[in-house]
Amino acid sequence: MKSSPDENIQGLIFSLIVSAKKRIYMETPYFIPDPGVMLATETAIMGGVDVRIIIPSTPDKKLVYNCTISYVHELVQLGLGFITFRKGFSMPKY
Known about the structure:
This protein has 94 residues and is α/β, with parallel strands linked by helices. The protein is 46% helix and 18% strand. The longest helix is centred in the C-terminal third of the chain and has 17 residues, at 62-78.
């Protein structure tokens, strides 16, 4: 059975998250986790790993930013920390 490069990357990301022992800091302007990344992240948090996501405070793509923000409440409730980076994208013109 063949796998696509995306499947290999998803598997690698999942493995890296669930194998963390102390902390995971992810920096991305576009955090839209698939179910595997959500499961791995939740598992890491429940295992006592300090998990933080660093996102820009000012988005360049409003739709993608809103998708990212839609995960914040659930993950913060689990113990994940979100950090906003203020020197990221410049203010978009909507």
